[in-house]
Amino acid sequence: MTNNTDALEEPPAPGMYGKMRDTAKHTVFFGIANILGRLLNFLLMPVYITWLGAELYGVLAMLMLVQILGMLLPQSVLIPSLFRSFYDYKDEKSRAMVVSTSFWLITMFSLLLCSVGLLLATPLSSLLVKTTVHAGAFRLVFLVCFMGAIGLPSLTVFRARKWSKRYLAVSVVTAIIQAGTSVFMVVVLKKGVWGVMFGTFVGTFLRTGSYLAMTFDSLKLQFSTSEARKMFSYGLPFLPGYGFTYVSQSSDRIFLGQFFSLAEVGVYAVGIRFAQLVNILLTGPFNFIQPAALFSAEKDHDANEFYAKTLTYLIFVGVFLSLGISALSREVIRIMAATAPEFWPAWRVVPILCLAFLFNGLRNVASPGLLLKRKTKLIPLTEGLGTIVNLALMFVLVRHFKGIGAGIAVATTFLTVCIARLYFSQRYLPVPWEWKRVVKAFLVGGALYAATFLVRVENIWLSMALKFPICLTYPLILYLIGFYEPAELRRMRTILRNLLARVRLRLHRPDRDGRSQ
Description:
Distance between the termini: 43 Å
Largest sheet: none
Low-confidence stretches: 1-14
Mean pLDDT: 86
Number of strands: 0
Shape: globular
Structural class: mainly alpha
Radius of gyration: 23 Å
């Protein structure tokens, strides 16, 4: 339980760079939590590859799609509304009322969804994976969805109050327990995909319990019908958009499964796992803190400049990250799947999917006008346009190019959505986007990725050693072509000088005997 005196952390430093520093600080903590938790799942991939094989790994990918669908309503409608309403009030009593209303709404809808899912698990298993053997795993998915959903309001309090350190502690402990349980169920008890989902349920149960305990002061036995109506008014326009997004994000595996096989889905899912590192390391952590950064900066005189530079910096880091992941994915997949060569072709879709995850993570950053001016009714239009593009490209490309065609369709879809959101957002909040810098970031990243193909060495470790320095030249080349602004260069020099000064101070600090260390 917390008290109101420490409900909000210290305000960010004044000025645009102060807000950027505050946002970056909490993004780092939220990012570390997501990285450690989801990185454990990534590192478990060799275990799943070895003990499940391509077909069962494809089944696991389908189970994940159902889990995402089960969380669609609370995540798309009520959580954005909770964020908007949370910042409508300054006092903790009113904010507790908002959180409580959201909690009871989500609990009611999630309980209904879980009940229906448990009844339909068998026919759903037959439809998606063409067998009823995995019906038990589908039931576990809906239990995971229920437990995850009721913890979302408390998690939103963490994000709004920027409790990044608490989130880090909870995430690390529960992720370790979840990973250990899953490995035990799969390797020792040989429970297959059911074992993976059971470990996920255990981790979700513990995580949600921790969230509820730490935000107990914000959860009351109260329900505001007027606040509920306001939440639905703000959030319902998000639902069609999220529905369209779900179709765009899941259609690749569904088309591959229908046109080819679950084994093909399994190989493609490995490529997704690698490309998801863009989301795990960057866009996921940032989007955790982005709503708080967006709404808290709304009244500042330099808000528009803050939004523009946020997009530029995310693209800069995102392209750098995508370059490294894409360039090294071929070698790393061969190392992780050394005993399962059927997974080796997965590297081909990684660079395409890295761009897809980057574009997907930039959607909200590219549309501050729609979110701040309550023009969320336009969001379904942009997502619907993306879905039309997605389904048309999937139908044409997957048949002929399999996973590569699916990846191209997904990347094109999210790029289309980003462009559409930018267009509509500019009508309500003109932001001076830094397009020249954005183009430079993408061109340099693409050129360096092409340069890594010049490395043709059979030895895997030597190949990685040669590609890695090529990727590291990315920020240097951007410096040479004038990407960085003078103010940014000055700040980087200041940071470097302060860092070196601290190192020198630590090296020359006397120890207890009066000697320099």
